[in-house]
Amino acid sequence: MHIRGDHVELVVGGRLDVRSAADARTALHTAVDDGVGDLVLDLSELDSWDATGLGVIMGVHRRAGRCGRRLVLRGVPPQMQRLLVATRLHRILAIEGGIGVESLPRV
Fold first, then answer.
1. Using CA atoms, how far apart are residues 18 and 50, in angstroms rounded to an integer?
2. Which PANTHER family does the record associate with it (predicted)?
């Protein structure tokens, strides 16, 4: 897993899972705490995430809200879009461009 960027926009790549969750949480919380306005997470380089990784994203979403910021997801890969729809988190998280639920392949 790698994260690059600043307190305004971060690119998350690789696998966001139980092994990388602690490092990701630290980096993302620091970005939230050090900035103002929207924090954009570009997930276009993310290969996969598990429940722990999704929990990290939700924790950052909550922390951003407490800091008066908004977490915005950009470039969410289709398989992760399906997970967000299945968990109904697409209704809670800000997703740039939204998710075209109708266009997602059924599994």
1. 7
2. ANTI-SIGMA FACTOR ANTAGONIST TM_1081-RELATED, ANTI-SIGMA FACTOR ANTAGONIST TM_1081-RELATED-RELATED
16 confidence band (pLDDT: 50, 70, 90): very high
The CATH class for the domain spanning 1-93 reads alpha beta
Q: Which of 31-35, 63-67, 73-77, 97-101 has the lowest mean pLDDT?
A: 97-101
Asked if residues 88 and 65 have their Cβ atoms less than 8 Å apart, the reply is no
Domain ranges within the chain, ordered by starting residue: 1-93
Q: Can you list the positions of beta strands (E) in the chain?
A: 2-5, 9-16, 39-49, 71-74, 94-95
Q: Is the separation of the CB atoms in 27 and 3 below 8 Å?
A: yes
